[in-house]
Structure formats: C-alpha cells, structure tokens
Design goal:
Pfam families: Ribonuc_L-PSP (PF01042). This protein is of the alpha+beta class and 73 residues long. The protein has one domain (2-71): 60s Ribosomal Protein L30, Chain: A. It has 2 helices and 3 strands, in the order αβαββ. It has helices at residues 2-10, 28-42, and strands spanning 18-25, 49-54, 65-71. It has a 3-stranded mixed sheet with strand order 2-1-3, with helices on one face. Helix 2 (28-42) links the parallel strand 1 (18-25) and strand 2. The longest helix has 15 residues, at 28-42. The relative contact order is 0.32.
Length: 73
C-alpha cells in the first residue's frame, strides 16, 4: 500500500481518488479478507470498483498478492 500511495502522489493523485482496483491473488479465499482490512486501514471510506482474480503465479518472486489501481488526478 505504501508503494501504491507513493506512485499515486507522484502522479498528482491520492488513495482517496482511486476509482478502480484490480487485485491478483494466489489464494483468493484466504487473502481477499486480508486485503480488505488493509485497504480500509489505508483508505477508509474509499470503495472503488474492484475486481479480484486468482492466478497461478505473479511476476515478483515470492509475491502472493498484486494490486493495481486507477485514480483520478
């Protein structure tokens, strides 16, 4: 979340302007509730359109979750 926040701010946006969130999981049933809690901590009240997809692998070795966002500037 810190990386997402930093990237958004560098682009002139912020977490409260996120309108779309795509999350990729190795174990969707286990990790969706965890991501929801973390998201609510970092972006309380922000409820973007969200998609969750289970995948067999992610680009970064050792990663179990990847989150992609789109935000208004």
């Amino acid at each position: 979340m810190a990386n997402i926040k930093t990237c958004l701010e560098a682009a002139g946006s912020s977490l409260d302007k996120v309108v779309l969130r795509r999350s990729y999981f190795l174990n969707i049933k286990k990790d969706v509730p965890i991501v929801a809690r973390i998201w609510d901590k970092w972006a309380p009240g922000v409820k973007p359109v969200s998609t969750a997809v289970q995948v067999s692998g992610l680009a970064k070795e050792g990663a179990v979750i990847e989150i992609e966002v789109e935000a208004e500037v």
